[in-house]
Amino acid sequence: RKVLIVYAHQEPKSLNGSLKTVAVEELSKQGCTVTVSDLYAMQFEPRATRNDIVDCLHNSDEFNYGVETWEAYKRGGLSNDLIEEQKKVQDADLLIFQFPLYWFSMPAIMKGWMDRVLVQGFAHEFPNCYDSGLLKNKLALFSFTTGGSKEMYAKGGINGDIRYLLWPMQ
Amino acid sequence: RKVLIVYAHQEPKSLNGSLKTVAVEELSKQGCTVTVSDLYAMQFEPRATRNDIVDCLHNSDEFNYGVETWEAYKRGGLSNDLIEEQKKVQDADLLIFQFPLYWFSMPAIMKGWMDRVLVQGFAHEFPNCYDSGLLKNKLALFSFTTGGSKEMYAKGGINGDIRYLLWPMQ
């Protein structure tokens, strides 16, 4: 079994850092192959820009990020950092997202990973989305820490923004 | 009346670009002073890192972004791009966020604006949050475009992640 941990914390000594390390150790012990995308250490680019397409644009007159990345995905024209991350996702049976909650959601660096890596053509293709999405046989697990006490948050470990993700939690 | 438009689209000719331009023109005509933070044009940094604190850290042994930016805000030690944006927010009576929906939420570049600009001490200070937050007398308006038809989204112009923001919609 292959696991990809997408990890977003600046400090290895943090609780998030510990949770990531424990996950790597425990999963490896169980025989899994674990890959970590340490977004801050990679200085992962969160901004969705024209730089994500390495060759010519489909429509250079009016830039549409969704259309351009979709077209670039199909012809293999996405930037290397995206291709690398997509390979890791493709290889993985389980994805773990480890992050602290910022403004009731994931930090921008991880939101940028979602925006840029999970492009149309790779993660979904109408009408193949949600339960019939292209990554439907993968599991995803969100592990995050909060700045508040348990009472300050509603029960359940997954917040509103997050449960809409592609992969059914099955 | 002063208005700040926080705008996140790569293409001036896009629908988001047009909506921003129309807002600037119409509000100016009505006598408002309008400022635009054009995040992609500014190449706004979305990543929350140690670089946001220009001087020494409060605790250099273990980096905690929330604590460090809170402390830095109090002593005036935040980076210039954050201080500039906080000034714009402080000056504004109305904030307008203009963006396309990416993965059921705002694009990472705008999430980074939230994460980095709205730090503790500036936007909120326990127990002053939500209706008693430090920016409570400001109005905020979210204007966004979607890739799907009206039927694909629930009614109402504000999505789950967004309505939790500090400023009451009053």
From TrEMBL, chains A, B:
Residue ranges constituting the Flavodoxin-like fold domain according to the UniProt record: 2-170
InterPro entries assigned: Flavodoxin_fold, Flavoprotein-like_sf, NAD(P)H_dehydrogenase_qn
Stated role: The enzyme apparently serves as a quinone reductase in connection with conjugation reactions of hydroquinones involved in detoxification pathways as well as in biosynthetic processes such as the vitamin K-dependent gamma-carboxylation of glutamate residues in prothrombin synthesis.
Chain segments annotated as coiled-coil in the UniProt record: none
E.C. no: 1.10.5.1
Cofactor: FAD; Zn(2+)
Annotated keywords: Cytoplasm, FAD, Flavoprotein, Metal-binding, Oxidoreductase, Phosphoprotein, Zinc
Methyltransferase listed as a keyword: no
Record PANTHER family: NAD P H OXIDOREDUCTASE-RELATED, RIBOSYLDIHYDRONICOTINAMIDE DEHYDROGENASE [QUINONE]
Domain of life: Eukaryota
Locations listed in the record: Cytoplasm
Name the record gives this protein: Ribosyldihydronicotinamide dehydrogenase [quinone]
MF GO annotations: dihydronicotinamide riboside quinone reductase activity; metal ion binding; NAD(P)H dehydrogenase (quinone) activity
Protein family: Belongs to the NAD(P)H dehydrogenase (quinone) family.
Catalytic activity as recorded in UniProt: 1-(beta-D-ribofuranosyl)-1,4-dihydronicotinamide + a quinone + H(+) = beta-nicotinamide D-riboside + a quinol
Record note on quaternary structure: Homodimer.
Name of one Pfam family that matches: Flavodoxin_2
Predominant cellular place of this UniProt entry's protein: cytoplasm
GO cellular component: cytosol
Listed SUPFAM superfamilies: Flavoproteins
Residue ranges of the TM segments: none
